[in-house]
Amino acid sequence: MDGLTIVGHPLVQHKLTLLRDRNSSIQLFRTVVRETATLLCYEVTRDLPTELVEIETPVAATRAPAISGKKLVFAPILRAGLAMAEGMLDLVPSARVAHIGLYRDPFSLQAVEYYFKTPDDVGDRLVVVVDPMLATGHTAVAAIDRLKEAGVSDMRFVCLLAARPGVEALRSAHPDVPIWAAAMDEELNDHGYIIPGLGDAGDRTYGTR
Question: Of 12, 21, 76, 200, which is least packed with CB atoms within 10 Å of its CB?
Answer without folding.
Answer: 21
